[in-house]
Design goal:
This protein has 5 helices and 3 strands. It is mainly alpha-helical. Strands 2-1-3 form a 3-stranded antiparallel sheet, covered by helices on one side. α1 (2-94) packs antiparallel against α2 (98-114), α2 (98-114) runs antiparallel to α3 and α3 (122-143) runs antiparallel to α4 (148-168). The chain is globular, with a radius of gyration of 42 Å. This is DUF3347 domain-containing protein. Residues 1-20 form the signal peptide.
Length: 218
């Protein structure tokens, strides 16, 4: 009887061992799958973070480029206002119109004063620091009197400094550097114009076509 009981117990123990092996194998397999899934998830997160970082850098670069372009456009527009006021002044002197020359000079004073060298590119800023005060000085004197003779004296140096500025900060359209050989008892003087045709601001209506184009700035 004891022998039969031992045999039954042994059989039950063997069966229990056999049943436990598949469970152990399944648990190990499940753990391995979980580990692989976790690794895949971590890799996906890393890849996503990398793409996000690359996209952010690209957007930052594009934004910086657009900002720089916008700044350049703003710069060009500011200087175009200076040039426009100068040409208006030149035309008024060519018509011997002292009052219109005054108004144009006042307008030029305003646009010259509002350009901040600190916001300009290096080369442009250097040129502007050199010529801003000189332009302001001559426009102030022209704006302060409506007598053409004194206005033209300052227009000589104003044109000289405008020429130097235009060589650094190029205009949107061609500008013609022109010369009058007869002004100031034959000493001559230069000016700038949007038109190639001569319209002399120094001799005015008395000799409007006296002079020649010596250079095209573009």
């Amino acid at each position: 009887m004891k022998r039969i009981i031992l045999i039954v117990v042994a059989a039950m123990t063997l069966a229990a061992c056999n049943n436990s092996k598949p469970n152990h194998t399944h648990a190990a397999h499940t753990a391995k799958e979980d580990e692989e899934t976790s690794a895949a998830t971590d890799k996906t997160k890393a890849d996503t973070a990398g793409v996000a970082d690359t996209t952010a850098k690209a957007l930052a670069t594009e934004t910086a480029a657009n900002t720089k372009t916008d700044a350049a456009v703003a710069k060009d527009r500011s200087f175009e206002e200076v040039y426009s006021a100068y040409f208006e002044l030149k035309d008024a002197l060519a018509r011997d119109n002292g009052q219109n020359a005054q108004q144009a000079a006042k307008k030029m004073q305003v646009v010259v004063a509002k350009i901040d060298a600190a916001k300009l590119e290096t080369a442009t800023a250097a040129a502007w620091k050199q010529y801003q005060r000189k332009l302001a000085f001559d426009t102030e004197h022209i704006a302060g009197i409506d007598e053409n003779g004194h206005q033209r004296e300052h227009f000589v140096t104003l044109s000289k400094n405008m020429y130097a500025l235009l060589k650094v900060v190029k205009p949107d359209a061609p500008v013609y550097y022109q010369h009058c050989p007869m002004y100031n008892e034959g000493k001559g003087a230069y000016w700038l114009s949007k038109q190639k045709a001569i319209d002399n601001p120094y001799l005015g209506k008395s000799m409007p076509t006296c002079g020649s184009t010596v250079e095209t700035i573009q």
